[in-house]
Amino acid sequence: MIVDLILLGGLAHVAARTDRYWPLWICAFHMLSVLSFLAWQFAPNSPLLFKAISGIWSIPELIVLCVGPILDLRQSSSQELRSAENRRIEG
User: Fold this and answer.
1) Mind spelling out the 3-state secondary structure of 19-63?
2) Mind telling me which residue stretches traverse the membrane in this protein (predicted)?
3) Spatial distance between the Cα atoms of 19 and 28, rounded to a whole number of angstroms
4) N or C, which terminus of the chain has less Cβ within 10 Å?
């Protein structure tokens, strides 16, 4: 649990400093995972559903981690291509 809280702090730090959108989504999914695990810890008589829900949030977190950088790379390469075309037309 300590490792998850440290990771959450690091993800929040990265999400606050970047101009990309996908670190914010990863931070949000990880926070949901931590909060659902804490809910399970503070309600010991609750069903194991809370523990299962805490693991569920890792799936969208991994999807965003795989897809987010790829989409950012596509967007930045298309912006570079457009700016190169504008320089060619203007120059």
Assistant:
1) CCCHHHHHHHHHHHHHHHHHHHHHCCCCCCHHHHHHHHCHHHHHH
2) 21-42, 48-71
3) 16
4) C
Helix axis angle, 2-17 to 22-42, nearest 10°: 150
48 φ/ψ sector (left φ>0, alpha ψ -120 to 50, else beta): alpha
Q: What is the pLDDT of residues 8-64, one digit of tens each?
A: 999 999 999 998 889 999 999 999 999 888 887 887 777 777 777 778 888 999 999
Which tokens belong to 68? 């987010």
Name 8's Cβ contacts closer than 8 Å, sequence gap at least 6.
27, 30, 31, 34
Residue type, 76: S
**Tokens coding 77:** 């390469």
* Count of CB atoms situated within 10 Å of the CB of 80: 10
**For residue 40, how far is the Cα from the chain centroid?**
23
